From TrEMBL:
Name of the molecule in the record: IS1595 family transposase
SMART domains according to UniProt: DDE_Tnp_IS1595 (SM01126)
UniProt source species: Pelomonas aquatica
Stretches that traverse the bilayer: none
A Pfam short name: DDE_Tnp_IS1595
InterPro entries reported for this sequence: Tnp_ISXO2-like, Transposase_Zn_ribbon
Domain ISXO2-like transposase stretches: 138-320
Amino acid sequence: MAQHFLLSAECRNFSRRQLESLSDEQHIALLARLRWGSETCQVCPACGHIAKHYWRTNRQQWRCRSCERDFSVTSGTAFHGHKLSIRDILTALYTFINSAKSVSATELARELGCQWKTAWLLTQKLREAILKSNRYTPVEDIAQMDGGYFCGKRRSPNRHGQQRDERAIADKIEASRSMRNKRRLQLSAGGRANAKRKKKRRCVCVLREVSPTRGEGARRTLVYIARNENQVDMTQFATLYAAQGTVMMTDESSAFAELPRWFDHCTVVHSQEWVKADGTNDNQAESYFSRLRRAEYGVFHGFRPMYLIDYASEFAWREDNRGRTMRELFDELLRLVLKNGHSTWFAKYYQGNRRREEIMGPADGRRFARKVAVMQ
């Protein structure tokens, strides 16, 4: 039996010990190489002048040869104005990619020795960079589609089974003329709380392009946030991001009833089997939900609708890059953060600059594109 990639030496080509052994100058050189493609030539964020600018050793900054402004390797990026050291930022980024199901801000704060707010903002900036970098192009060949519910986690009642309460029975008889009062009396305090939590439930719809070669799994993962699993959102998601001629595999939900009008639609009935004899299944979509749900319950202990699209996009990125080495993941995520400019939703977050409403629909980064100069 072939060895799993995560157990191979190829995957372990970059360790925390190697990262910590680098000097501060080497950390800056690493950031400069990933941001500008060179360790000796820089691009001034203010005027865009490309040159070997004057290095100021004491401040760990450059002075522009043209406009004479000072800038650092993080100026004009999501790390602009950071309080943590470069070493701590890179350590947090390594911890983020090394965790198969992400890392909580509480755990990261203990590791860095900083406040929870600082760790949370740092991880959210990483997720924002992943979200902005999404460029959805239509999936082809074979695709699997499904929807899963997150947020609004229901809590179990305090008392189990039917409890005989003479006073409650008398109240129900007295209020039998009013259906509203009857419903209100039937609901316990826990039931009313669960009814409020249910309003926060959201459906994460996933569309995964599957490799036709057996054993290779999914190649690309696209996500879409909806209120519930319905025909309108599912049909819109599929028609927007699936090419004509795609073989679409789903479960037996009625939300996919319109797909045969546009695609070759194959269905598997989960109440009977997981995989049909002809190979029809949606196991790759379920695999994505498995990782996301374990993170919801075991790492974060709950998602909120406001930032559900960030977490859904993060785990789509993790699924798509599961076959890459540690050094490739580290460089790729750091490059995304450095290339996407200032943070839109988390720069000066505690001064009031924050997201005001939740984002529904596809996690396509082109929706959030800003006119930021891309430094090559």
